[in-house]
Amino acid sequence: MMYLQTDDQTIEDLRLFAKRDQTGIYDIYNNTFTRGGESLLQQLFKAPLAEREAITRRAAIIAAFAGMQTQFPFKGSTLDSVEKYMTHGGAAGNDASQKISLSEKEVGNGVAAVLDLMHVMKGFLLKGDVSKIPHLDDERSALLTVLDSAELAPVFNERPGNKLSYAAVTAFDVLIRVRERDKIMAALQFVYQMDVFISVAGIANQRKFVFPVPNSKGDSLLKLEGVYHPELKEAVANDFGMNSQSNVVFLTGANMAGKSTFLRAISTAMYIAHMGFPVAAKKMEFPVMDGIYTTINLPDNLGIGASHFYAEVLRVKKVATELSTGKSLFIIFDELFRGTNVKDANEGTIAVTLGFAGRTNSLFIISSHIVEAGEVLKQKENIAFHFLPTRMNGHVPEYTYRLEEGVSEDRHGMIIIRNEGILDTLKNGKKD
Q: Which domains does the chain have, with CATH numbers?
């Protein structure tokens, strides 16, 4: 299995996971019923796919559950008991100190929960919605073979809910936690997988997310309709596209016009699409990439005594090194070289953007306040230009957050400074 390359900076930029009092993209998709499902979902978020077939398969499974509006068939209380029981049983037959960590009652409850789970699972595999999804046929058949094994016959010979004798509980405990532990754990892992798929399918229905269509690696067509950032309650949706003839986008716009949010919306959609998950858009078609790297909120690297500008230089160097290996990458730089003077930033932005334009197997979005760079970059045919406009309502700037073609000419910084009364405060002091 091939996985999408990324790094901690990108994960931080996209705010994939909660931090302090800030929720993450993960939280939007996490509607799991089990601790194991929650853990598996985290793993999937950290390892997006980089193979078209694998992405297509996962998306098809989740879409099928969404179409059938499948409900998770297992009781949360049953799974809680099973997880507690199996977690404390890793060495039950070899280390008595492990076994005594559960009371006699807890062992009895655990055995009863496993019996109940196995019976419900077999019914789900034979007649549930999972039996209607061809992409899961191999896994379903393999698990049915495990459940039909002679070793687990006692489990299915016992009717769930029956009161078990002490001797029966002891016998089942040895069977479940020692002799056939691997089989039970394999079944539990399948439950976790279904938990993730069914819960994400529910989110797709609830939020009306769309399942993206992946193109072959090397096909640079990216097409988004109605894309928006999923964390925003009243987000403005935009259409956006890129291809090999315009694989670089130069994005401009005034402060607060929405550039960073737009970049997060696009890069989040690309990242989530590589997971095979539904995204916040009306329609999406995307090329499978080798990696995604964003630079939206780059901190100073004080640990090595690096200024913000030098941190930017090191970031560009890292991306250039990855590109030099021939990988197809999706790259975003928000306000490239903001940490230096305007002249150097202008020259650096032009030079780096032109360098990116030569890598036609990758896609780049570069945002900048330096609109003057746009005049030079227009000489390159495969660089497209978009901006987020500002409309003036008298002396008050208003933002549409709707993407337009061209280069912004908006310069409203001084208007905002004057509107806030900063100059009057500096001149006359604060008024009561």
A: 31-207 (1.10.1420.10), 213-428 (3.40.50.300)
